[in-house]
Amino acid sequence: MKPAVLLTRKLPSSVMARLETACDVECFDGGTMPHEELVARVAGTRALVSMITDTVDRAVIEAGSDLRVIANVGVGYNNIDVAAARARGIAVTNTPDVLTDATADLTWALILAVTRRVGEGERLVRRGAWRGWAFDQLLGMALRGKQLGIVGFGRIGRAVAHRAGVFGMSVAYTVRASVGRRGGPSRVPDSEPMPLDRLLSTSDIVSLHLPLTSETLHLIDQPALARMKRTAYVINTSRGAVVDEAALAWALTNRLIAGAALDVYEREPLVHPDLMTLENVLLVPHLGSATTETRTAMADLAVRNVVAVLTGQPPLTPVP
Ligand code: 8YV
Fold first, then answer.
1. Residue 320: how many CB atoms within 10 A of its CB?
2. Ligand 1 closest atom vs CA 52
3. How remote is the CA of residue 223 from the centroid of ligand 1, in Å?
4. Whether residue 6 has its Cβ less than 6 Å from ligand 1
5. 184, pLDDT greater than 80
6. Ligand 1 atom showing the smallest separation from residue 51 Cα
7. Which of 9, 155, 158, 239 is catalytic?
8. Are residues 138 and 192 in the same domain?
9. Is 99 touching ligand 1 by the criterion CB < 6 Å?
10. Which stretches within the chain are classed as H helix?
11. Do 64 and 144 sit in the same domain of this protein?
12. Is the pTM of this model over 0.90?
């Protein structure tokens, strides 16, 4: 008998086919799986393929007493109680690397769009309010010669930094001691490590690339925003709760900073109501890894993790 695997969402058909050769696949097919249904359906399964939208908490883990592996489709895994899984000997895996370029590219799409006021311009045209070219219309900020501050210099932060030279920007970055010891960051040209406070007060763009943990929750709060230049922008493609959304709305309303671009939110799909009314914030719906190629690679890696664990091999990409 093949081992049972529960998927909380359908994956691309090529990836499903690979999984179906090795496993008995059960798949929820109605958007986000309600938590109580996840708890009920995980019982008796050997593997769970989950997404950011699934809260894999103690209740799920206890109900899944036969689970050998939880394979999250995503590099972030703050939706999973990793300690509870580990305590029961369940492997937890994520999908690093395969989404690095897609997320770095989207970060640059947001940087360019918000500094050049693309969202505002698009809204102006669509509501029929554009009266023609004007010399001083929707002037933005040039990037050349400016400083990009990267908070969190892991894979994605470094990939964002590597693209900065093309736009003539220098890079400042914060770094955890463990990353610094591996020596990766110094390979980015024209870049300088900085304490967070100095990075915030000197950067023209502050881009966030941190996992959500108890230490990074609301890292960008009122005092952090007040430290930034009045001409600076915040970009967030990491996790919504790294930014205190109410504080961000306050800073944008009071013009303490020039603007912000967000891909992620504290309570997705909800967005702080004040942000919805502001012109100087660009809002997109969690698109960081949203290319066909990247989502297929993420699904494929998650499935390869499942097959590895269920065939007695070590997981390919266990969470750290
Ligand atoms: C994914 C993400 O789309 O990888 C991550 O951590 O936030 C996104 O790229 C999401 O996790 C899907 O579960």
1. 9
2. 13
3. 29
4. no
5. no
6. 13
7. 239
8. yes
9. yes
10. 13-22, 35-42, 58-63, 82-87, 100-115, 118-126, 155-162, 177-182, 196-202, 222-227, 245-253, 273-277, 292-310
11. no
12. yes
